[in-house]
Amino acid sequence: MSSLSQLGRSARAINANLPRASVARVATNIAPRRTLLTLATAARRQGAVLAQKTSAFNKTTSQTALRAFSTSLPSLDDAEEAEEESDDPTKAERYADETDVVIVGGGPAGLSAAIKLKQLANAEGREFRVVLVEKAGEIGAHTLSGAVLEPRALNELIPDWKEKGAPLNQPALEDHMKFFTKNYAIPLPHPPQMTNTGNYIVSLSNYVKWLGEQAEEAGVEVFPGFAASEILYNEDGSVKGIATNDVGLDKNFQPKEEFERGMEFHAKVTLFAEGCHGSLTKKLFRQFNLRDECDPQTYGIGIKEVWKIDPKKSKPGTVVHAMGWPIDNSTYGGAFIYHMGEDMLSLGLVVGLDYENPYLHPYKEFQRWKHHPYVKDLLEGGECLSYGARAINEGGLQSIPKLYFPGGALIGCTAGFLNLIKIKGTHTAMKSGMLAAESAYAAITSDKYEEGKPIVLEDFEQKVKDSWIWKELKEIRNCRPSFHTPLGNLGGVLYSGIDTILLKGRTPWTFHNTTPDHERLRVATNAQKIDYPKPDGVISFDLLTSVSRTGTNHAENQPVHLRLKDKDVPVERNLKIYDGPEGRFCPAGVYEFVENESGPAGTKRLQINSQNCIHCKTCDIKDPSQNIDWTVPEGGGGPQYSYT
Amino acid sequence: MSNLRILVATKRVVDYAVKIRVNAAGSAVETANVKHSMNPFDEIGTEQAIQIKEALAKSKTGTAEVVVVSCGPAKAQETLRTALAMGADRAIHVDSEEDLQPLAVAKLLKAVVEKEKPDMVILGKQAIDDDSNQTGQMLAGLLNWPQATFASKVELGDKSMTVTREVDGGVETIKTPLPAILTTDLRLNVPRYASLPNIMKAKKKPLAKFAAADLGVDIKPRLQTLKIAEPPKRQGGKLVESVDDLVDKLKNEAKVL
Asked: Residue A520's CB: how many other CB atoms inside 10 A?
């Protein structure tokens, strides 16, 4: 597309504000063309929306400022572009709305920030607009976690949560730690951080749904079904807000009959709460160099199922964690089994994405783990209700990036506050959201606030460092990296045992996460193939059956949201060198190497079944060529998790 | 210049993409904590009404008012808001916590029709939860109005409409005077997305609420569901070696001979 070459030119012309792109170094934002021709075309196609467009014309003042600062003369190319693009509905001006704060992501962090902002505003009787956009069709539909919730942040945010009906119905009563061998489950002592007295076994999806209701009651404008796909910038480079994606494009990016342009939210502060490995957040890292001073983030993939089990086997409140079989000593991994009450069982496996063997198949590891006698016994006579997977942060303190930039901040797992030893990230995510809310509210309502001057939330980062988030993460910071010695899991467990029980992190040393996960894979010829057992259809299942239990659905005939930077790399590199690991690490069967019918005999091509995607982000993390770019599909698509 | 009032009936049902389960008691489908949305055929109905309104405005031959109605519990209002966001003008919520079956809904809609006096009533051909395919037809019977069901194409004339219907034998075109009942089939149109600006505007559009009891209608259920069960799991097929083997299996295992 010609516009891409324009971006290339404008990227090099620093500070020359060409009419078609706002800030020079931003490759992500194409400012809408403000010609009357464009508006007229838009009117013909989208009659009802015209009224808003003309008012938006008046509202968005940044464009007039753009022209005032333009230092280059329009070229002949520009005139031709104007002719071509004026009839293109995909380039039509977007409706823009102003808000005080816009939050990307309706998970624990985003919702807590939203609720806190409205609590502060309502206490002062102040008009304060908070808008939250969430890509899932319903709040909670993309939420998946173990989970045992530490109510620390909830107690601070909504102290009367019990009266308000929060779904924290099952207190954690007993903790068990086990080491699995092929046939036995050997009890082990566990670090004190894993004692769950005072915590609750919850379905995080239901909990987030409830938080969503609290947010709406507090006056937050919650818009599920709308995916923020673009970051908007002011000319000074600060974040201006976000835009939701255009909907109704076919798979060749051509507008269909139902085409609707996305809309823009301009805000004084934009909070990004996208969860682990956010798709907009990764652009912010590059844009503002937020990762210059920290270690690379490391990840795990968490795969789980929820079962309805035989009532005789249900022990409500029992929390079990297990290490060992089938995960080998050189791969980080652990399993969980939580008795949720009402005969429901949540069970899953977390595999560190720093694994080295390209033949490792996390989904199949989970399926075969369920055949361990301890687990199989629990599941016999039961029924699998739900399945899902999501990448989680493992990097801890050392991998936390700079949390703020002009115009916004990062909160929750998109920054990375998960406490891996507790295996909990919800309470820290919520707290980070609350702290960002306090900081943003103070900045926006302060006398010193100047319109046009970006808000820099420096004190937010300081608040996080002074809070219990930092204290917790500091205490356990050396545990996960201690697994990266030749002693593998054994060394890690020994070190972590000593550190958590005796030293409590009070050591002068800090181990570092030296290597990003995608650089860890060994070449296929140096790796050992793993012979996974076939699923039996009763305890273990084939991948597609499991995918059907995620309820995932994406509207048909839309652009594939998994973008390859170079379409030859999957076969030329991933398949050749690593034997196609993407066909194994995706827990939804999105990536398949199939016969290339249109090429020479015996060659393969990568088939992307993007319809199956459950938005776990593992592909973006683990692709050894970093060639897969996970972008957000049309809002409303993706999994439909329940009970997870 | 014609000024039409179009009444569109909608129902909040379990979303079509959800994998449904039978509840523990075997009495109904599990609906707690499950995603709900507007019945797809009702979305088509709402879209059709809005298209009629837009066509009239464009050709400057008249105006239309699109009124959406839904009978059900409080959450039915979400469905109404979606319809308003698509472009309907106002909404009516007939509030009831009872199990409303097609005959009850038809009676309630009749009461609404007598209040609103629309020129046409558009319904989906059936709801995807009960697949009854009765409400539109019953409403026509109660009102003594003409009905055009399974519509795949609609053209409005002067106080009449020409409807192409999808029937078992193929396609049938009929012309009826207005007022009339229309029920939508899949091929009638493709519903538009409710854009975010329209969703925000929809919050300000009027939504009136009536209690079902106030409409003076007998809505007692006439049918009782005795049992719901999942279909039996599909058995694998078997390959047979010879005709004798086939006959033997049909006789002794499948017991159909």
From this structure: 18
Q: Give the residue among B138, B126, B171, B177 at the shortest CA–CA distance from B152.
A: B171
Based on the residue annotation, tell me whether A384 is a catalytic residue of this protein: no
Answer whether residue A616 is part of any domain. Answer: yes
In a domain, A308, yes or no: no
Among A456, A476, A496, identify where a domain stops: A476
Render pLDDT for B52-62 as a digit per residue (tens, 0 to 9): 999 999 998 88
Q: What is the ipTM of this complex?
A: 0.77
Q: Could B193 and A551 be called an inter-chain contact, meaning their C-beta atoms sit closer than 8 Å?
A: no
Of A384, A413, A479, A613, which is the active-site residue? A613
Same domain, A453 and A514: no
Q: Both A417 and A523 in a single domain? A: no
Average pLDDT over chain B, rounded to whole? 92
Does residue A211 sit in helix, strand or coil? helix
Same domain, A225 and A131: yes
Q: Work out the average pLDDT over B109-119.
A: 96
What does the pLDDT read at residue A194? Answer: 85
Quote the pLDDT of residue A71.
43
- The answer to whether residue A79 sits within a structural domain is no
Of B17, B57, B87, the CB nearest to A640: B17
Cα separation values, A365 from A141, A179, A324, A328, Å: 25, 16, 12, 11
Find out whether the peptide bond into A31 is cis, omega within 30 degrees of 0: no
Comparing alpha-carbon positions, the chain A residue that sits nearest to B198 is A49
Q: What is the CATH number of domain B3-252?
A: 3.40.50.620
Residues of A in Cβ contact (< 8 Å) with B234: none
When divided into structural domains, chain A yields a total of 2
Interface with A, mutate which of B193, B230, B234 (most A CBs under 10 A): B193
SS3 A372: coil
**Identity of the residue in B18, B57, B196 whose CB atom sits nearest the CB atom of A263:** B196
Of the candidates A428, A454, A476, which is a domain's last residue? A476
Q: Burial of A181 by CB count in 10 Å (0-12 exposed, 13-18 middle, 19+ buried)?
A: exposed
Distance (Å) from the alpha carbon of B145 to chain A's nearest alpha carbon: 33
Distance from CA of B200 to the nearest CA of A (A): 9
Same structural domain, A556 and A453: no
Do A210 and A125 lie in a common domain?
yes
Chain B hits for A263, Cβ within 8 Å:
195-197
Q: Indicate the SS3 state at residue A382.
A: coil
The range of the structural domain enclosing residue A249 comes to 98-167+202-295+397-476
Could you give phi then psi for residue A115, rounded to 5 degrees?
Answer: -65, -45
Check residue A359 and give its pLDDT. 96
Based on the fold, state whether residues A281 and A402 are members of the same structural domain: yes
Out of B33, B54, B193, closest to residue A260 by CB: B193
Cβ density class A194-212: b for 16+ within 10 Å, e for less: bebeebbbbbbbbbbbbbb
Q: Quote the minimal CA–CA distance from B217 to chain A in Å.
A: 34
Interface contact A95-B58, CB threshold 8 A: no
Known catalytic residue: A294? no
Same domain, A448 and A527: no
* Segment B150-169 mean pLDDT: 94
pLDDT at A362: 96
pLDDT, averaged across chain A? 87
Q: Per residue in A191-244, pLDDT tens?
A: 888 899 999 999 999 999 999 999 999 999 999 999 999 999 999 999 999 999
CB-CB under 8 Å, B198 with A247: no
pLDDT tens for A274-320 read: 999 999 999 999 999 999 999 999 999 999 999 999 999 999 999 99
Give the model's pLDDT for residue B203: 87
Task: Tell me whether A553 touches chain B (CB under 8 Å).
Answer: yes
Q: What is the pLDDT of residue A86?
A: 58
Tell me if B185 sits within 8 A of B70, measured CB to CB. no
CATH code where residue A546 lies: 3.30.70.20
- What are the chain A neighbours of B192 within 8 Å (beta carbons)? 258, 260
Q: Is A145 a catalytic residue?
A: yes
Q: Nearest C-alpha of chain A: how many angstroms from B241?
A: 27
In the predicted structure, residue A16 carries a pLDDT above the cut 60: no
Cβ-Cβ pairs closer than 8 A, A with B, add up to: 58
- Residue B12 is predicted with a pLDDT of 96
Q: Is residue A340 part of a domain?
A: no
CATH of residue A139's domain is 3.50.50.60
- Dihedral over Cα of B93, B96, B97, B99: its sign: negative
